[in-house]
Every structure is written in C-alpha cells, then in structure tokens.
Amino acid sequence: MKANGVILLYVVEKLQTSHTLVAWAFTLQCALGFLVSEYLKLVEAPLSKQLLHYFSYRQLGIIGGFLAGFGYIGSGLLTSSILDLFVFHSISGFGFGLLCIPNFMYIHAHVDDQTFSKIQSTSGIFIYVGVAILPVVLKWLVDIYGHNGGLAIFGALIWNCILAGVAMKPTKESTLEIDSTSCSTVPREKLHYLDKYLPFLSPLFRHRNFAICMLFASSGMYVYSSWAIFLVTFGNGLGFSSQQSVYLSTAGGAGGAVGSLSPLVLFSYNKMNAFTTCFYPSLANGTILLVSTFITDFRIVLNLMFLSGFVQGFQYAGICGIIPLLLCEHHLGFGAVLSFLVEGMFYQFGGLIPGMEHPKKRH
C-alpha cells in the first residue's frame, strides 16, 4: 500500500473510475493483510484451524509470499476494470496476511515475552522504511517500463518474501494452540456476558486504558492510510512536481523510522502510557497536517512530512509495545486480535473517505 500513491492518478484515468474506488482498493489490500494475519492466528475460526493445523509455517510463508507478488503482477498485466483491481489487490493483501502468520508465530515460539514485546515495538521501523523507499522504487520502475511493466516487475521483486518462508525451519510447534478458557483472573460469579460469550471484547471493559488506546489507534490508522495513499497527490495539489511529491513519502518514511525507535527510550524509563502513546501523538500529528495544508514551500512541507512520519512512527511503535503492559496475561491474545482488527477496519476507511472528497478531475 505504501507505494500505491505513486500510481493513484494513473489508475483512475486508465480505468475511468473514481478516486474513491481506487483508493479503497489500495487500502483494502493492507486491511486484508492485517485482518488475515492477526485475526486468524489468535481466534478460533474454521479457516485459521485449517491453515495452521494442515500447513506448516514454512508452507504458509511460501504461499503468502507468492500471492503477495502475484497480486501486483496481475494488477499490472491483467487489470482492465475496477473489479479486476479489487481482486488482484485483495489477492496481494491476503498473501501478505498469510506471510505474517508464520513470521509472528515462529518468532514468538523462539523468544521470551519481554523480547517479543520489544520486537513488536520495533517492527514499525521497517514499515516506515518501506514508506521511504518503495514509492521511489515503484516510480522509477514505472518511468522506465511503463505502468504495466513497472507493476509486474515490482510484483516479481515482492516474490523475495518467499525466501522468508523457505528460511523457516520446520518445528514441532507449527500448529495453532487455542486457549478457550474464561477470564482466569475474575471469580466465576463476577463474570459478565462478555467474558462468557464474547471474550474477545472483554479486554475493552476489563482494561479501560486499553480501550482508550484502541480509540486513538483507530483514528491513527485512518490518518496513516490516507496519508500514505494521498501524500503524492497532496504534493501535486500544492504545485510540486511528481518527483518532489514522491520525496514527501521518502521524508515521511524516514521520520517514521526514526520515530519508531523513540518509544524504546520511554519504555526504559517507564514513561509510556495510553496518553503518551496515543493522545499526545494524535494531537501533534493533527496539528502538523493542518499546518501543512497552508504551506507552499517545498522544503518546509518536506520537513513537516518528516515530523508527521516521526509522530506516527512513535505512536505505532508505542501501541505495539504498550499492549502487553496494559493487559493481563489472559487478555493479551484477545487484545492483540482487537488491536489489529481495529487497524484492518480503519485502514480501508483511509482510502474510501478521503477519496470521496478528492476532485474527479484535476484542472
């Protein structure tokens, strides 16, 4: 999704459709990746049991890597309608989701909980490195080989993810273990209906700071997805060239990578909580983005996008790292499900709603 903003306007013109549908297809790709990877590995769903009881980590990694790249190749060579775009980007998103399942479970099986929490909090670094690099790579490929050829080559490059699956050694623990017990920290007579019948919602009511965190995480994911998709278009709207607009993504990604490291310092001094992780970054990022709409100087906007990326990277890494601190051990699994379910849902709104407000034609 991080690179899709480069081709947004071209796809709109090629398919003779609206910005809304194209942006929605782009963000739906990432939303599916989140929903598949996090929901299926922790919730007792029929598909998850089929996947992780009948396929090894290695097999899922290989299949996921193949589908992730194939979706982009199909988008470049076989797309002639908006329906095709939705199909191929959904295939790619589903593939990324399948790839995340074995990576998450494999790492979790080989490190302790404290180390795993740090790994989760630093994963945002690589997300924002992608924001910084992938738009430039796709722009370069499209300029040289055209839209269709550039996307096909980009998809082929994504096939390197297959190697992540190949590199996983088979283990005896390559199956899903389901914990279906009720809330273990509350007496039976004090359990309410959510604990008994909708346990995956229980963390929101048993841990109020977690609920606050999820509220701001949902808005943060909406802002991030619209920011990532429309950043290049935003630069064009300010009068910058296409090349300059791509560099806005580079600056934002670089800021996000640096920002993702910052929570480690605050975690070390026990200064992270729901407000320092969610509220203050949301307020700061909203102010930065609002100010940027009134600026036309490229260098100032470039620095503002770096700051915006820094704040978003700080927030994302902080949320990933603080969840184990906000929840008891029993609710941790369900809390992870909720956090990524929220991210997956609001990711797609970031393409759908701003796309409705985007003008159909540029004058």
TrEMBL record:
Domain of life, source organism: Eukaryota
Regions that span the bilayer: 21-40, 60-78, 85-105, 125-142, 149-168, 209-234, 246-268, 274-295, 302-326, 332-353
SUPFAM superfamilies linked to this entry: MFS general substrate transporter
UniProt keyword terms in alphabetical order: Membrane, Transmembrane, Transmembrane helix
Pfam families: MFS_1 (PF07690)
Key word Transmembrane helix present: yes
InterPro entries: MFS (IPR011701), MFS_trans_sf (IPR036259), Proton-linked_MCT (IPR050327)
Coiled coil: none
Gene Ontology MF annotations: monocarboxylic acid transmembrane transporter activity
Entries under Gene3D superfamilies matching the protein: MFS general substrate transporter like domains
Name of protein: Monocarboxylate transporter 12
Species in which this protein is naturally found: Holothuria leucospilota
Lineage: Eukaryota, Metazoa, Echinodermata, Eleutherozoa, Echinozoa
